[in-house]
Amino acid sequence: MSGLHTENLTKRFGDLVAVEDVSLTVEAGELLCLLGPSGCGKSTTLRMLAGLETPTEGEVYINDTEVTDQPPYKQDSSMVFQEWALFPHKSVIENVAFGLKMQGMDKKARREKAREMLEVMEMGEFGDASPTDLSGGQQQRVALARSLATESPVLLLDEPLSNLDKRLKEQMQIEIKEIHSQFQRTTIHVTHDQDEAFTIGDKIGIMNDGRLVQVGPPREVYNNPKNKFVEEFLGETNFIKGSVEQVVSDGVVVSTGIGEPIRIPLQNRSITEGDRIHVSIRPEILSLEPATAETNTVRADGSHNFTATGTVTNLLYRGSTVRYYVDVGDTSMFVEKTVGDSSIDEGSTVELQWQATGLLCFDRSGDKIKVQS
Q1: CA gap 245, 250 in Å, rounded
Q2: What is the annotated signal peptide range for this record (predicted)?
Q3: How many CB atoms lie within 10 A of CB 13?
Q4: DSSP one-letter code for 235
Q5: CATH of 2-226 among 3.40.228.10, 3.40.190.10, 3.90.1150.10, 3.40.50.300
Q6: DSSP string covering 58-89, please?
Q7: What share of the chain is helix, strand, coil (3-state, %, to 5)?
Q8: Model pLDDT for residues 16-40, shown as the tens digit of each residue
Q9: Contact 227, 362 (CB under 8 A)
């Protein structure tokens, strides 16, 4: 039984299509992170799931029961908002008990339940405090306790960590994952933060321009992005534009303009000479070493191994790693290494090396082209 399911969910505001034809299934007890850039429709989708927005088209099902036209208070879901929406004139325990009061639970029982949830969230000592006296992380725990207290089978989280600093955000990511493991509620967590989605989600759903582009486990989505948008959005990479110069028995020969043509073992037989493709070279497949020659070009051997010689133009220290920006001809590439290699500095001539089997390739329309292993 699915915990939550949508069919062709669409939302229009006049001529603006905010969400278009979203069909999504979240299994009971699963945590899905809905990920995408600002304005892609993920929060509007969540509001339709919560009953706060009425879909223009499509249906919403919770535990296989249609709830599309039901108001929020009749739906089996609870929501944590980006601003947490705590009542400043009520105490912490009154905030947590509020949903239970709306459900008709008597005062003594709801206070006991609220206190139990505060203990779970390690906030038991703050029951009589005002939410305005709490830190951001503490307010977040209260908002989660309030949603969990109602025991709704579906939990909806609308960018609940966006107002926290980096350290607290990382701490709360772990806590949300642990809370989900404990309570096993069907959960949709909306975020624009890729690291957050990969940390928390059992699955990730990528949205762009109101459409659901790809859904799958984090590792699958990262290793097999459906198109160029997913590849660009999930993480920084080196994109190089190329043109198919020749189709050969085991792939294609691609001219990139930064050295000799490179031979890529593509499986797609529909590729023809003259086709434009984009080649993604992720920094994790690159090695970086000092070079002895200053050729500023790309060279290839017969085994699909490539070497690019270039000049380091900039260094960016990122805590335990250093990002090196390297000019190869007229193209800038980057690679990251752990801190400690002092032999490479700005102005150094270096060699970048990689294998074709680690490349990701996309056609003119942005669809992925499969590379042979």
Answers
A1: 14
A2: none
A3: 11
A4: S
A5: 3.40.50.300
A6: EEEEETTEE-TT--GGGSSEEEE-TT----TT
A7: 25, 40, 35
A8: 999 999 999 999 999 999 999 999 9
A9: yes
Q: Which residues of 62-83 are buried (b: 16+ CB within 10 A; e: fewer)?
A: beeeebbeeeeeebbbbbbbee
Rounded to 10 degrees, the C-alpha dihedral 236/256/325/231 comes to 0
Q: In the block, which residue shows the tokens 């992005």?
A: 225
- Domain boundaries defined on the chain: 2-226, 236-369
Assess contact for 227 and 221: CB atoms under 8 A.
no
> Of the CATH numbers 4.10.220.20, 2.40.50.100, 3.40.1190.20, 2.10.109.10, which one belongs to the domain with range 236-369?
2.40.50.100
* Local structure of residue 371 (DSSP, 8 states): B
* Residue 318 Cα to chain centre, angstroms: 21
Quick one: tokens of 310?
Answer: 């270039």
Per-residue pLDDT tens for 177-224? Answer: 988 998 899 999 999 999 999 999 999 999 999 999 999 999 999 999
